Amino acid sequence: MNQQIKIIIGLLVAVAVLWITYQIRGVLAPFGLAFVLAYVLAPIVDRMEGRGLERTWSILLVFVMAFTGLGFGAFKVGDKLTGEMVELSDGFMRREKIDKSFVIRNNRESPLVVENMAWEDVSETQPFALLNIKDLPFEIESGGQTEVQIRFAPQSHEASENVLSVLYGQNENVYRVRVYGNRANDNINIGRGSESAGEMEALPVVFSHSGIGFGSAGPNIVTKVSAKASEFNTFLQDILGVDFNLPALVKEHGERLTQTMLGGTTVFIGGVVSGLTFVVIVPFVAFFYLKEGRRRTRTLIELVPNAYFELCLNLLHQINGQIGGYIRGQILATSVVSILAIGGLTLIEVEHALPLGLLAGLANMIPFLGPLIGFFAASIAALAAGGGLGVVAEILVVFLIIQMIDNVVIQPTVVAKSVEMHPLVILFVVMVGSQLMGIVGMLIAVPLTGILKVSSQTVYEGVRGYRLE
Q1: Does residue 245 belong to any structural domain of this protein?
Q2: First to last CA, the chain
Q3: Residue range 115-163, pLDDT digits in tens
């Protein structure tokens, strides 16, 4: 019974630790980045220290060289990469319609009749529409108010504006509400002007806004690809039946996949890649890992009984070497694949080649699924930009060549085979990662599982060898 209680308590503690870790994952992210950075720079620091330079100065010198290189790279491609990433992300997550409203309040002692509401621009392409006003004229009782809802649903990303004229009262007073969309700095509601709240309350009829800015809206990439899919729908209906609707399937599942992949990712990345995180927290924590790592390891070893001293020391050394080799191998493989993908997509003139190639390199850490993610992301972006099946075929050729190079040269050379995992395990951890942190979770799920597998294998083999001796 005591043993069973211990097992139950251990499981409860493990669940509690996992739950707390998930809740504070945004706080732990900088420590994870610092952990990776420390493992990447550790061999250089050790080599410089071995040649006689004091460890603190070795770390500082390596940091200066590393961050100078990163700064130079950011200076060269940072603006272009950031701009293309924002544009591409906006293309996927862009809202296609925005609803806002204004209020008409009747402060008179008698009912107010709103005779008519009409748009000054009555063209078919104007993107503004009234939602909740159907019957005109309508009456607002004394002291009452009515909310008028307006929808902005443009068919393009061009700037738009219009004026809604509201005809009210027996004297046929006209109030004009200006509306704006897809213009710079128009994401806030525009008030009545200089009138104070008290002045507005004293007016017989009060309109809450004289202008409304709707921000940015328009067809997103999923909608564009759905429209492109309609070109093949007739052909597929002849094969699969008249009920088959490819554009509707692309629209429905594309939006759902986009929300799953990018919805939680944006919030997570926002806290991780802030300037404070990269400039202060990550370097500081990485410096602590490099400077104090050996001392903390020595302190831990001193707590181990003498009978297990040699075993634990050997295990820590093997785990450290395996994890370091795995992390450095993955970073090198990711960098090479990213460069190849960026070069290949640029060569065939695919828009947003820089972020798409970087995504392909990062996704390549996910066995089996990673190359497909890179290929489909590039293909979707190309189709949304107006490309056809010819461009998709060129992208396929680029990714096939990259995979041949990766499988024949990169993986056998730089990535340890000891972290090979069953496809079902990979699929499971990728799905869990996508649910927890979107595409970021997918990217880190497999490497994190690989690190855990390396550690557990090393411990198991070390303990088994110790017992055999």
Answers
A1: no
A2: 33
A3: 999 999 888 788 999 988 878 888 899 989 999 999 999 988 888 899 9
Q: Is residue 242 part of a domain?
A: no
What is the H or E stretch that residue 232 is in?
A: helix 221-240
Same domain, 306 and 350: yes
**The model's pTM:** 0.66
Helix axes 264-272, 25-50, angle to 10 degrees: 40
Contact assessment for residue 180 and residue 215, using Cβ atoms and an 8 Å cutoff: no
Side-chain half-sphere exposure of 197, counting CA atoms within 13 A: 0
Q: Compute the distance between CA of residue 42 and CA of residue 286 in angstroms, rounded to an integer.
A: 10
Give the Cα separation of 130 and 132 in Å (integer). 6
Residue at 221 is within a domain: no
Q: How many domains does the chain have?
A: 2
Q: Looking at the predicted structure, is the pLDDT value of residue 60 above 80?
A: yes
Distances (CA, A) of 82 to 74, 77, 188, 283, 348: 10, 8, 25, 22, 22
Q: 105 by DSSP, 3-state: which?
A: strand
Sign of the alpha-carbon dihedral angle for 302, 308, 309, 311: negative
Question: What domain range is 287 assigned to?
Answer: 24-94+267-468
Decide if 179 contacts 163 (C-beta within 8 A): yes
* Cα–Cα distance, 436 to 375 (Å, whole number): 23
Q: What is residue 202's predicted lDDT score, i.e. its pLDDT?
A: 67
Supply the DSSP symbol for 352.
T
Distance separating alpha carbons of residues 361 and 259, to the nearest angstrom: 22
Write out pLDDT tens, residues 249-285. Answer: 777 767 666 665 565 554 445 444 454 555 677 788 8
- Is 259 part of any domain? no
| Owner of token pair 């990163």 | 70
Q: What's the confidence (pLDDT) of residue 347?
A: 92
CATH number, residue 187: 2.60.40.10
Distance, CA of 336 to CA of 321 (rounded, Å): 22
What SS3 class is residue 178?
strand
Closest CA to 65 of 34, 79, 44: 44
